[in-house]
Amino acid sequence: MTFTEILALAALALDAVALVHAVTRHLGVASTLAWIFFILFLPGVGPLTYFLLASPRIRTTRRRRRLAGQAVRAAIQRSLGSEPLPAEVNHASPLARSVLFLGMRLTGLPPRAGNRVELLLDNERAFDSKTEAIRGAQRSVWAEYYIVEDDETGRAFLAELAERARAGCDVRLLYDAVGSSGIPEESLEALRTAGGKAEAFLPVNPLRRRWSAHLRNHRKLLVVDERIGFTGGMNVGDEYARGAWILSGAGRRHRNRPWRDAHLRVTGPAVFDLATVFAEDWTFASGERLVPSSVPLPVPGGSAVAVLPSGPDQVANANAHTYFAALSGALERCWLTTPYFVPDEPTVHALCNAAYRGLDVRVLVPAESDVPVAQAAGRFFYGPLLRSGVRIFEYLPGFLHAKTVVVDGSWALVGSANLDFRSFSLNFELGALVFDRAFATLLEERFTRDLAQSREVSLASVERRGFAERARLGLARLLAPLL
């Protein structure tokens, strides 16, 4: 037998093992078929990619993250005991009350009244607010981000953390090993030398027991002194802070395109839950158990807020179910903003069903994406959505990175989760449900201003697509569960 024949047999054996593994795992029909297609289409390479991205250790990672969370929650229960639901929950509308209970059932975090919530839509203002909070820290700064860039903004952020660490604060940075792979080791070492701590979330190392390349921490979270919290869509980098970067198709950066995002600054009891999410993630990533100390006092006249973490460690994904509840429970309108629109089948049905019921359903996405295959996969769904009455708009001035939902001018969700398979199945995500009409109205006003700078997609333009374009979008759709 020649060496070439041995390689061919080895590739066939690897294909067979990968196919059996994919079929017997609970990945969902669409994802399983996509992997089968990928494995068969690329013999040898396909199965290697499968075992890298759909790692066999995903189940182990889920279990270990769940156990870390349970350890932190048990410690909180022992120190603080159980808390009654705020009276505002019982006085909320039936839809709002059902969504609050849904979030609490799936995350274990109760809704909390008496929060001051500031919607940060200007990138520079958002980072100025974060910097001000960090500089004013007296006890602790806990930061958790998917991306910390090695650029002017990223280096300045790490320098601010190091300065607070030198001042004696408990400074901890949790960064995603893939999203923040560009952080220089010397920058992290400088933070540690100053007295801070830094940990990578799920390092990509097949020799590590907790290794899993496919599960990423997509959360954006900053908690200062356990009394001020920030969360939303903004990572740490020039494009997020200055709002003036976008990747071109050739991979080059241009500074003439604005970057639109959305973030929240929160004070009040809900900050305790943001700190709890950080503590659970830190406990999982570092092995060092961390427990938040106390619940901040309510702010008079503040908003009801429910912190919404989601991830593969949950039995049912909290963000996926909340999106579905928003669409299925809305009575008048549901407006969604997302940079990556690759809906799964239940979400497509929920969007269409809401439109068929006569609701004003609008989806705002960027006209130009930094992930072309994801954009193509999303455009595959335009036809059935438009036929049902869903209105789709593409934002023109630059890259739209905000992830928001606003329902009936009554309540809203601002967070890190995209409307795609990865956010609903694989990523660890974080958002905040805000039940306040004034806040929801403010978000609707911004949504309306964004629509004025967008083009509405017409059904006629979709139906004019040629065969080559339909084939391109269809192929991208097949890859959607892998994106």
For this entry, give a set of tags.
3 domains, Endonuclease, Chain A, 483 residues, 20% strand, two-stranded antiparallel sheet, 15-stranded mixed β-sheet, alpha/beta, 46% helix
Secondary structure tally, helices: 19
Biggest sheet overview: 15 strands, mixed
Structural class assignment? alpha/beta
* CATH C-level of the largest domain: Alpha Beta
Please name the CATH architecture of the largest domain. Answer: 2-Layer Sandwich
Topology-level CATH name of the largest domain: Endonuclease, Chain A
The backbone outline, from C-alpha atoms, is globular
- Helical residue percent band: 40-55%
The domain tally reads 3
Full CATH superfamily name of the largest domain:
Endonuclease Chain A
The percentage of residues in β strands lies in 15-25%
Instruction: Compute the separation of the termini in Å.
Output: 39 Å
Q: Estimate the mean pLDDT confidence.
A: 86
* Low-pLDDT sequence parts: 245-255
Strand order of the largest sheet: 4-3-2-5-6-10-1-11-20-18-17-12-14-15-21
For the secondary structure, the number of strands is 21
Q: What does the radius of gyration come to?
A: 22 Å
